[in-house]
Amino acid sequence: MTRIRANCPGCGEVDLTPPDVTLRIMRASDGLVGDGSTYRFLCPACDELVTKPADERIAQLLSTGGVPIEELEDIDAILQTLLPPHPERPASGPAFTADDVLAMHELLQGDDWFERLLTP
Ligand SMILES: [Zn+2]
Question: How many domains does the chain have?
Answer without folding.
Answer: 1
